[in-house]
Design goal:
There is one protein chain. By secondary structure, this protein is mainly alpha-helical. It has one domain: Arc Repressor Mutant, subunit A (Orthogonal Bundle). It is 66% helix and 7% strand. It contains six helices and two strands; from the N terminus they run ααααββαα. Strands 1-2 form a two-stranded antiparallel sheet.
Length: 153
């Protein structure tokens, strides 16, 4: 029997996290899929959609849909960039900041659930290992993208 890869457990954690957040966000008429977008805009107000996509490692179409939905819900506003009117900057509204505050509470609760029984050193080591894996993944994907974009002779 083959041992499951770490990706299996990352996927399981992600799915349970989505279930937990969906339940917590339902009374707020929001969805778990929107939370990374509102958190990013609140933490870095004034970014454009392309920067948001890059930060969250999301495709531009998904980002555009999420931004539109958050805008319709009154959580963010788009404002034209002063130096380039073709670019819109994203800013949280008061309602968006309130949603962020609720999300911070939910995410703290979820983190407490996930870390139950872990020592401080285990928590630190887990973070460090996951960040290193994410950096390795990013480096590899970017390198492959750059190779694919290089014109062949």
């Amino acid at each position: 029997m083959r041992t499951p890869t770490i990706l299996r457990y990352v996927s399981i954690l992600y799915r349970y996290s989505q279930i937990y957040l969906a339940r917590r966000l339902k009374p707020l008429h929001s969805s778990a899929g929107l939370y990374p977008f509102i958190l990013a805009v609140c933490r870095q107000p004034g970014m454009n959609q392309e920067s948001l996509s890059d930060l969250l490692v999301m495709d531009k179409g998904t980002t555009a849909k999420a931004v539109k939905e958050l805008e319709l819900k009154g959580c963010i506003v788009r404002k034209p960039d002063q130096s380039d009117r073709r670019t819109n900057r994203l800013y949280p509204t008061t309602q968006g900041e309130a949603l962020r505050d609720e999300l911070d509470v939910f995410l703290l609760e979820w983190k407490e659930i996930l870390w139950k029984g872990f020592s401080d050193s285990e928590k630190t080591q887990s973070y460090d290992l996951m960040m290193r894996m994410a950096a390795n993944a990013r480096s590899h994907v970017v390198a492959e993208r750059d190779i694919a974009a290089t014109p062949s002779e």
